[in-house]
Amino acid sequence: MDIQVLQDYLPLFGEAALLTVELGLAGIALSTVIGLVCSLVQYYRIPVARLIVRIYIELSRNTPLLIQLFFIYYGLPKVGIKTDPAVCGVAGLAFLGGSYMAEAFRSGLDAVEKIHVESAQSLGLNRLQTFIYVVLPQAVSTSIPPFTANVIFLLKETSVFSAVSLMDLMFTAKDLIGLYYNTTESLFLLVVFYLIILLPVSLLGTYLEHRLGVPTVKHGGKSRINGGTEENAGKKVVPNVGN
């Protein structure tokens, strides 16, 4: 492996990594918004909209991102809708990621016990207050692991952006290999830069999972959960939502 080649390629891979992160974060932000809206539609079983969301999720999850990018970049101009490569990449990532985020958030919402919602309502909380103070905190805690996995998945999926001529990491590596045949150095830097991007995301997700998880501490046959007491193992604990 030639160290001089690595030094010469570093600035090029640095610029490509910055573009990859910028487009990836933009796509992830949009996919998070789409996923949240779709999960709420499913959770509250809104007529018609629920069916549309279901069709969107099945269509998005069962078609590759590469095909979606080709449709947006090459197909939409046929009907008068033109996009540049960056917009195409973000739109494709948001379209794909929205379906995965929707399922992650929906699983978190569905994991909230109905008795917690009923208890909050019996204490006088309205529907919005129940969602904000009871449903949302528990759903977020449950959704952290799949959300982190989806973020990592979507950042890795940016590797297909090169198909629409975006100068991302994959495009840069292939371009340099094709021009100078320094395959080992190019692939080494490609792996290193993806690790630099993805490893902090994975570690942050693990930290948040432990930090926001619901702790259960045993005390002489009793366990404390969110300030409540559970004396019998099979007895459900209703959190104090009145405070």
Overview of the structural elements:
The protein has 243 residues and is mainly alpha-helical. It has a single domain (3-230), classed as MetI-like fold. It has helices spanning 3-43, 49-61, 65-75, 85-110, 114-122, 127-157, 169-180, 183-212; strands spanning 216-219, 222-225, 228-230. Helix 1 packs across helix 4 (85-110). The N and C termini lie far apart (63 Å).
Quick synopsis:
The chain has eight helices and three strands. It is mainly α and 243 residues long. It has a single domain, classed as MetI-like fold (Orthogonal Bundle), CATH 1.10.3720.
Q: Which characteristics define this entry?
A:
243 residues; mainly alpha; MetI-like fold; 3-stranded antiparallel β-sheet; 3 strands; 5% strand; disordered C terminus
